[in-house]
Design a protein that fits this description.
The structure is a homodimer.
Chain A lengths: L11 E3 L8 E3 L6 E2 L4 E12 L2 E9 L8 E2 L2 E3 L6 H13 L3 E12 L4 E10 L10 E7 L12 H20 L6 E4 L9
C-alpha cells in the first residue's frame, strides 16, 4: 500500500495513538488502513460406497503451484458464510455436486496471513468437470494420492488427518474430530 | 475505496475478466483490490472450582456497543495464528492469565463480513484488570449473566452453547463440541 484509498495522499507506516503495532496511516485524512488475515475455505469431497473410498482433487491451472493437486478451496468472499464459500469454491473448481458436512480442519498459515478451513462433503454423483482454475479433476483412493504433487501443506495435512480419522472410525466407531494445526514457514521457525 | 492504493488513480467498480463479481479495479495500473471477510477471535475464560462455575466478561469502553458486555475478542492480526489472537485479545482486554483450549464456536456474520471464533480457556488466577478497551471486567455465573446487555449475538450464542455443553457433560460425560452458527441481519432474512 502506497496511497490512501480514501483520499489518494501517500500513506505513512506508523503506530497510531492507542495502538501497539505499525499501520498504514493517512496523515492527510486520518484514515487507518488495517490489514488482516484472509480465510481460504474449501471441502473434502468424498465418494464412499462399500470398500470404495475416494476423495476428489483438482489439478491447479493457476499460480501459485500450477500443475499441483489440491482440494477445491479459495478465498472467502464478503457477504457469504464459510459453508457457502466451501460449497461455491467446490462447484467453481470441480463442478462437483456435494452435500456439505461439519468443519474438519482449521489450519493457520501465519507467514502468508491466511487461515484455511476445510469442510467434509459427500459427493452426490460423479458428474464433475474441471472449472476455469483447474486443469483436471480426479478421484483418488488413499494409496493413489499424489503426495509429492500436493499443492499446499494445508491440503496435505487435511488429507492425512481425514484418512487417519476415517480409519479410526472404521476400526472403533466414533465421530470425525476437528483438526487444528499451525503451519509455519521453515525459515521463520524459532529453532 | 475511492483511489488505487498502488498508484493513487481513481478506482472503478467492475467485474474483471474471468471473475464473476464486481471488484475495485484500477484502470491505470491494473491492480484489483479484493475485499474479504475479517476474523474476530476471542476466548471463553472459565473459572471452575467445585460448584463455582464462572465466566469472565468485559464491559466495552469503545464503540460499537460501548457499555455492553462481551467475551474478550478482537480482530485477528497478520502474522499471528487464531490461538495467538485469542490469547492476545484476552490479555489486552481483560489482563487475564489463561490457558487456551480447543476451538469452541465458529459464527458467521455475513452482513458485516466477519467470522467470529471463540476458544475455551481456563483462568489461571483472578488477577484480571480492565484493559484500555474495557470499562470493567467481571466474573459471572450462568444465572448472573447480563443477557439483555450482551454486546453481540455471536457472544450470546457462544455463552448459551457453552453453558448447555457444560451441563450436558456434567450430566452424562463426554466432550465439548464445536458449535457452528450463521447470524444474519434481520433485514436480510429471506422471510
Amino acid at each position: 500500500m502506497k496511497f490512501c484509498s480514501d483520499c489518494a495522499h501517500p500513506v505513512s507506516r506508523l503506530t497510531p495513538p492507542g495502538d501497539n503495532r505499525p499501520r498504514y496511516v493517512c496523515e492527510n485524512c486520518g484514515a487507518i488502513h488495517y490489514q488482516n488475515p484472509k480465510l481460504v475455505v474449501g471441502s473434502i469431497p468424498v465418494w464412499e460406497h462399500g470398500d470404495d473410498l475416494r476423495v476428489l482433487l483438482c489439478r491447479r491451472a493457476i499460480e501459485p503451484r500450477r500443475g499441483f493437486w489440491t482440494l477445491p478451496a479459495g478465498f472467502m468472499e464478503n457477504s457469504e458464510t464459510t459453508s457457502e464459500a466451501a460449497q461455491r469454491e467446490t462447484e467453481e473448481e470441480s463442478g462437483a455436486h456435494i452435500d456439505l458436512h461439519t468443519l474438519f480442519s482449521i489450519v493457520n498459515v501465519p507467514h502468508v496471513h491466511q487461515v484455511h478451513l476445510f469442510y467434509r462433503a459427500t459427493l452426490l454423483d460423479l458428474e464433475y468437470e474441471a472449472g476455469e482454475e483447474s486443469l483436471e479433476v480426479a478421484m483418488f483412493s488413499e494409496q493413489d494420492i499424489p503426495w509429492s504433487d500436493i499443492a499446499f501443506p494445508t491440503v496435505e495435512y487435511t488429507l492425512r488427518a481425514f484418512f487417519t480419522d476415517h480409519a479410526r472410525i472404521a476400526r472403533e466407531g466414533g465421530e470425525f474430530l476437528l483438526h487444528s494445526e499451525d503451519i509455519r514457514h521453515p525459515m521463520m521457525r524459532p529453532d
